[in-house]
From TrEMBL:
Gene name linked to the record: narB
GO molecular function: 4 iron, 4 sulfur cluster binding; metal ion binding; molybdopterin cofactor binding; oxidoreductase activity
Alphabetized InterPro entries for the sequence: Asp_de-COase-like_dom_sf, BFD-like_2Fe2S-bd_dom_sf, CT_Nitrate-R-NapA-like, MoPterin_dinucl-bd_dom, Mopterin_OxRdtase, Mopterin_OxRdtase_4Fe-4S_dom, Mopterin_OxRdtase_prok_CS, MopterinOxRdtase_cofactor_BS
Protein name per its UniProtKB record: Nitrate reductase
Top-level enzyme category: oxidoreductase
Family stated for the protein in its record: Belongs to the prokaryotic molybdopterin-containing oxidoreductase family. NasA/NapA/NarB subfamily.
Native organism: Accumulibacter regalis
Annotated Gene Ontology cellular component terms: membrane; oxidoreductase complex
Keywords for the protein's UniProt record, in alphabetical order: 4Fe-4S, Iron, Iron-sulfur, Metal-binding, Molybdenum, Nitrate assimilation, Oxidoreductase
Gene3D superfamilies per record: 2.40.40.20, 3.40.50.740, ADC-like domains, BFD-like [2Fe-2S]-binding domain, Dimethylsulfoxide Reductase, domain 2
Keyword hit for Metal-binding: yes
Domain spans labelled 4Fe-4S Mo/W bis-MGD-type: 2-58
UniProt EC number: 1.7.99.4
Amino acid sequence: MHKQVKSTCCYCGVGCGLLIETDKDRIVGVRGDPEHPANLGRLCTKGASLHLTARPDYRLLHPELRRQRQLPRQRVGWEQALDHAAERFAEIIAAHGPDSVAFYISGQLLTEDYYVFNKLAKGLIGTNNVDTNSRLCMSSAVAGYKQTLGADAPPCCYEDIAVTDCLLIAGANPAVAHPIVFRRIEDARAANPGLRIIVIDPRRSESAAIADLHLALKPGTDIALYNGLLHVLLGEDLVDREYIAAHTEGFAALEQTVAAFPPAVVAEICALAEAEIIQAARWFGRSAAALSLYCQGLNQSSHGTHNNAALIHLHLATGQIGRPGAGPFSLTGQPNAMGGREVGGLANLLSAHRDLANPEHRAEVARLWGLPSVPAQPGKAAVELFAALKRGEIKAVWIACTNPAQSLPDQGTVRAALQAADFVVLQEAFANTDTAAYADLMLPATTWGEKEGTVTNSERCITHITPAVSRPGEARADWEIVVDFARRLGARLAQPLTGQLFPYASPEAIFNEHRESTRGRDLDITGLSYALLDSAGPQQWPFPEGASSGRRRLYADGVFPTPSGRARFVAVEHRPTAESTDDTHSISLLSGRLRDQWHGMSRTGTVARLFNLDDEPLLSMHPADLRQRGLVSGDVAHVGNARGQLHVRVKPDAGLLRGRAWLPMHWGSQFMNSAGVNALTLSACDPFSQQPELKHAAVAVARADLPWQLVILRQAGAGELAALALLARARTLLADFAFASVGLYGRSEPLVVFRAAHGEALPESRLQEIDALFGLDADDAAIVYADQRRQISKRAIAPDGKLIGIRLAGETLAQSWLKEVMAAEVEGPGGSDGAAAGLDPALIRWALAPIGKRPGKLPQRSRVVCNCADISEAQIKADLDGGATLTILQEKRKCGTFCGSCLPELRQMVASQAQRSATEAVA
C-alpha cells in the first residue's frame, strides 16, 4: 500500500524537506517537498538517493556484547544489553566518580534525543562530560556569535540570498556542501546580474568558479584579511558611524588594532594582490545589502572563534545586519547541529543557550529538572575527552550516531584511546563504521525515515518529522534507549529522582519539557507544539507563546542579547596556523567535502551512483608540485608527518596554488587502508570554542616506491545489495597492501572497484586466492594473459561475451576506460534502459594486451543530464522522440524535480525537439 510521509533530509544543515514514498512498509522513493521553506521541492544528489540507503540488510539490527576485548561480540537481548551497561557504568562511577564516564553524541540526532542525553549526564550522573561531533564543525561559530552578538543565533534567513547586493562566501563551498543553498545563489545571480560574489578560499573551489572575485588567501590568514578589509572601509569612510555609536561597543580598541593592517601589509601576510583586497572592501562597503555565508574554513581553526568575530565585525561596522539581504550567516554542517546547541548538547552549555559557567543558569536548570543542583565543573570537549580516555581519567564512553575513529583529528591518538578504554558503548544504525571495531556493546538505533522528533536547520527553522516505516529488527529510537538506560542506571546509583527525571513515554513529552526550558530565552519556542508544526509547517525561532509566526531576521531593532544591549567588537589579532610548513613538511594539506558523499560514508557509501563523480580518494596538487616530486596523475604518493602517514593516488589541480594540497575528508578505513586525512591532522584547538584545526596540517609528499599495481573491476549482480556483499569481502584485502582503496561505481548493476599497489609482485597463488574472493576463478569463461618476466598477470571473466569482471596485475593502464565501458554495458547501448548485448570481444583483447592502452573507438556512455535522478541524455532523447513534454519527463524520470540545476538544459532539449518536429512537419 503506497503512502507519502513528510520528513527532512538527514545530511547537511540546509534542512531540506522531503516527501518519503513507501510501499508495504518499505521506503521506495523520495522527492523534495515543495511546501518546505528550506528547499521548496529541490533536492541535491545525496538527498535524491536517500531511498537507496533505506535497506535493513547492512544495518545493525540487534544488540551485541563482548565481555572481554579479545572475544567477538555476541548477539544479546535488550534487557541483558542495558543491564550490563548500567552495571558497568555504576561500577565505574562508584569507584572513580561521575567524571570517569562520558558521552559523545552527534548533530544527526534529533533534538529530543539530544535533550535526554544531556539530562542523563548532567542531571542523573552529575557530570558535564557530554559533548558532540558538532564541536568539530560548529563550535567556533557558536563562540563567535556569542562573543560579538551575545547569543548563538544566526540572524539571517535563506530568503536574504535573493535580495543581497554583495555576497561574501568565506571558508565555505556551498556548491558541494550545501547544494540547495547554492541553487539559491545561482537564482540570485540570474535575477540580479549586478550581484557581486566574493569567495574567500585557499582553493579555487566549485563555488569560487562563479565568483566575481576569488581571494585565494594563505591558509590561516583570515583574521589579517578581515582586519585589512575593515582598514579599507575605515579609510574610505564606508563604515556606519551612527550605527556603531548607537548599537555597539568596543570599536575604538578594534580601530587601533586594524590600523596595523593596511592593504599592502595584508597582501604580504595573505599572499594576495593589494588591489583585490581593496576591491573586496569597496564592494562590501558600498552595497545596499551585504550578506556573508561561512562554514568550516573559518571554524576548523585554532583561532576559529576570532575568524568568525573578525568577519562579523564587517557587518557591525557597516550596519549590515538585521535587514533583508544583510548579515553574517553561518551555514550549519549537520542536519541538527542547531538543535543540539539549543538543548545544551555541548560540555560547556546547558539547555536553551544557558552557560554552564553562569550560577544563575545552573540554578534555573536545576529548578526545571527538580534537582538540588547541576554540576559546575565544565566537561571535557571532544578532543580533550578522548585524550582523557587515553590517559585513563575517563574509563567509559558512550558514543551515539557518530564515528570518532574517523572524524576526530590525530587518529593514532584517538584509536589508542578507544583501545585503552575500560568500556565502550556504540549506539548506531550501521554496523560497519570504523568505531564499531572498538565497541564492547553495540546498540541498534533507528535512523532516517524511522524516527519522530524535531530538527532545526541553519536558518533556525524547526521541523517536526514522523516515521515513514517501521523500525527494522530490534532497533529502538535513540531517546528510548537513553531513557531505558537512565532508569536502570538510576536504580543502581540509588538516585531517588530517576523516575521524575525520565518520565517520558513519547518524544513529544521531551519536546514539551525542552520548550518550557526556552521560556523567556533568546530562542523562546513556547508558542510551538507538534500539532502546530504539523498544521502550519516548519517555523523559525524565536516563536514565543502568543506569536503567530517565527522571526525571519534577528536584531532589526539594533538591540542585542548582551548585558548592555549592544553588539561587541572584539580585539582580534592575526594568528598563523597551528602548524607551519618547513623544509621537511613543505605542503599545506587542506581537507574538504565532496558533493556526493557525506561524512564517513556509512550511508552514502552504499549507493553506487554517488561514486560516479568521485570514486576514490585523490590528493589534489598543483601540476608543478607534482612534477617536482616526479608524480603524474594516477601515481601513488606517500603523504605523512609525525602523527601518521597514508598512501593515496594523486591528480593535478591548477586551482590550487603551489605548496598546497587538498584531500576529501570522507574516506576512512572502510574504503582505504588508512584512517584517511585525519591520520595527519592535529589536535590543536581554539581556546574559546575547543574546536580543532581540522582544515590544515603540514605534510611531506613524495612519490611512493610501489611499482607493482593491481586493479579489479567486478560486477556483483543486479542491485546494490550484491555489490555491498562483495564490497564487504573486498575490504578484507585492504590491509594486505601498502596502498589500497575500494569503492563502488555505476548505476543499476554496480561495479566494485578495488585498487592496490605494492613494493613487489604477489605470487600467482595469492592472485588466485584474490580471484576466488571476487568470483573471477571460473575457468570456462576466463580470458587470461600472463607475462612472468614482466610480472604482468591479467584475467577477465566474460560469459556469453559479457564482461563482468577483470583483474589487472602488474600493468593497469586499461582501468579507466574499462570502468566506463563496463558501466555503459550494464546501462545499455547509448544510455537506454536495459542490458547491452555484450562487449565487443576486441575490446576485451585490448584490455588484456601487454599495454592496456585505450582503444581508438569505444562504446559511448551517454552523458548524465540529471545527476539527482541519474537520467542520461539518451534516455531523455528517446522520451522526447516519443512525444514527451517537460511535464511528462518530470513525471516519468523525475529529472528536474530535485535540485533543479538540470532544468535549463531540459528546457533547451524540449525546445530543440519541438523545433525539429515543426521543421519536419513543414517539410
